[in-house]
Amino acid sequence: MFYITENFLSIQGEGKYAGFPSYFLRTGGCNMVCPGFDTPYEVRGAAKKGCDTYFAVDRAFKPEWLAVESVEQIKALRGLERVDDVVITGGEPLLYYKDAVFYETITYLQSRGKRITFETNATVLIDFERYPAYKECVYSLSIKLSNSGEPKAKRLNAKAIEAIVKNAKESYFKFTIDKALTQTTALQEIEEITQGYENDIYCMPVGADRHQIWQNDKTVFQFCIDNGFRYSDRLHIRVFDDTKGV
Ligand code: SF4
After folding, report:
1. Within a 10 A sphere around the Cβ of 241, how many other Cβ atoms?
2. Which of 47, 137, 156, 158 sits a CA distance of 20 to 30 A from 76?
3. How far is residue 48's CA from residue 54's CA, in Å, rounded to a whole number?
4. Among 148, 235, 226, 128, which residue's Cα sits nearest to residue 193?
5. 177 vs 3, 112, 144, CA distance in Å?
6. Mean pLDDT throughout 220-232?
7. What is the pTM of this model?
8. To test the ligand 1 pocket, which listed residue (4, 24, 27, 33) has its Cβ within 8 A of the most ligand atoms?
9. What separation in Å is there between the alpha carbon of 206 and the centre of ligand 1?
10. What are the tens digits of pLDDT across the range 159-215?
11. Residue from 144, 145, 175 to probe ligand 1 pocket by mutation (most atoms less than 8 Å from CB)
12. Whose CA is nearest to atom 3 of ligand 1?
């Protein structure tokens, strides 16, 4: 059994496949909190801070999550048949990689010809030999940098990154950075993580809403030009601001 917090048909707004019509499954639960991304929210009157998908991270929202106990629930999702791309995001979706229903979901989607992209923080070491379907997926390696507010030992797992890059048919790096980080350690941190890999590197501005993106986008854009990285925007936020489920 695994949990999803929302599912919807939309357009991918980030990374290599930005602009592609995609069906999104957002899983519930994460092994990080990322308070540095500074999105304020409230739980039972208490003020908290997290990332822009705090509702898929903080277990206080678990009563609102949907338990997927059978792949039949996935087969019944309307809109899934209309697109070739399925994006499995979170939270951290790979926390469920050994779960029987989750794995059956992956193999079912593959049997329907879907390209599956995992948006992952790349801290989960996948056993690709035991679960070979994961080799046929795309991995958007959204590895967190120091601006996430998480300690390095928690946000970086070199073996997990290596296993994905070596085994998966496709993967790319995608870093979420802000103006302050571009002026300090962003380049050094990115180089440390990506050295030895040939994968494309995307940088994307921090921003849970349009206003926050506007504060960071030009600097991140220039940072990409200066360092030969690819710029990724966040199209869904440009268009819909901080509306959920789009
Ligand atoms: S790893 Fe991703 S989903 Fe988890 S808390 Fe950090 S930004 Fe949010």
Report:
1. 13
2. 137
3. 9
4. 148
5. 28, 36, 9
6. 98
7. 0.96
8. 33
9. 12
10. 999 999 999 999 999 999 999 999 999 999 999 999 999 999 999 999 888 998 999
11. 144
12. 91
Which amino acid is residue 122, in one-letter code?
A
The answer to whether 12 touches 119, Cβ cutoff 8 Å, is no
Span from the CA of 63 to the centroid of ligand 1 (angstroms): 19
Mode of pairing for the β-strands spanning 21-27 and 2-11: antiparallel
Cα atoms found within 13 Å of the Cα of residue 58, Cβ hemisphere only: 20
Ligand 1-lining residues (CB < 6 angstroms): 30, 32-34, 51, 53, 57, 90-92, 121, 144, 148
CA dihedral 192, 194, 195, 200 (to 10 degrees): -150
Shortest-distance atom of ligand 1 to CA 176: 7
Any idea which fold 2-175+185-204 has?
TIM Barrel (3.20.20)
CA 175 to chain centre: 10
Residue carrying the six token digits 């199209």:
235
Tokens of 60: 């206080």
